[in-house]
Design brief:
This protein is α/β, with parallel strands linked by helices. The protein is built from 9 helices and 7 strands. The structure holds 2'-deoxyguanosine-5'-triphosphate.
């Protein structure tokens, strides 16, 4: 049950929302978000919400993610509309733990991926306008609080190598330039602050290291992440 009600500044919000802390983990494709979430999922009091990629790969039998990579002009708006819905659902999902850690957010879906499709000429202007209007409506009328963004900062080259290693079928068509573009959009948004409003303070964790070193980094940052939100 969602328990949505109208909250004080007139926005729709989850009931009991005020006590919940929300952390979003952001970063390029294959930057290691899943490893980060896995690490924190072993911490009591934290509930981890992974990205609903499996839903995007199977919309009643349709692999929307694969369709988007094959023909972004045609399928970009379908995927982004669906991602926006699944992300909204995650932001509003009722969790019992005091801290919720999410993989990505409705904000990066818009500020990174929709922007990327539009700016690289792969999304018609009218599709972009419709997605913007939806995003603006949602963020104006629904309370989507975020308390901290953990940005896993990688080089596009590292992501490219990890991407090739993991061999996710849909992603085999992704060239290095795509990851460079996505990287730049993250930097503009979360580091330079030149593209779109950032919904929360940003903690940057350099994430080009191997798994063992990354686990140490998370150990090192653990307290900071948990207390930065108090
Ligand atoms: P990780 O653990 O850092 O390796 O994370 P990934 O790569 O499993 O997860 P993520 O979010 O980088 O992306 C999964 C796939 O979905 C990847 O092919 C990129 C794609 N994707 C994620 N969000 C969006 C979006 O809003 N729009 C588009 N077009 N693609 C997206």
């Amino acid at each position: 049950t969602r328990g949505i009600r109208t909250g004080t500044p007139g926005k729709l919000m989850r009931s009991g929302d005020s006590r919940r802390t929300v952390i979003c983990v952001e970063g390029n494709i294959a930057s290691g978000k899943t490893t980060c979430l896995d690490y924190f999922s072993n911490t009591s009091n934290i509930q981890v919400l992974t990205e609903p990629v499996s839903k995007w790969r199977n919309v009643r039998g349709h692999n929307l993610l694969a369709l988007m990579y094959q023909d972004p002009q045609r399928w970009g708006i379908s995927l982004q509309t669906y991602i926006q819905l699944t992300m909204l659902d995650k932001h509003l999902s009722a969790t019992t733990a005091p801290v919720t850690m999410m993989e990505r957010s409705i904000f990066s879906a818009k500020h990174i991926f929709v922007e990327n499709l539009y700016r690289s000429g792969k999304m018609p202007e009218v599709d972009y306008i419709i997605l913007n209007e939806w995003f603006d409506w949602i963020t104006t009328n629904v309370s989507l609080p975020v308390d901290l963004i953990v940005y896993l900062q990688t080089s596009p080259q590292t992501c490219y190598e990890r991407l090739k290693q993991r061999c996710r079928e849909e992603e085999m068509v992704i060239p290095l330039e795509y990851l460079e573009f996505i990287h730049q959009l993250h930097e503009d948004w979360l580091i330079k602050g030149t593209s779109a409003p950032v919904p929360a303070p940003v903690l940057v964790i350099p994430a080009d290291y191997d798994l063992q070193k990354m686990l140490h980094k998370y150990e090192e940052h653990r307290e900071k992440i948990l207390t930065a939100t108090n």
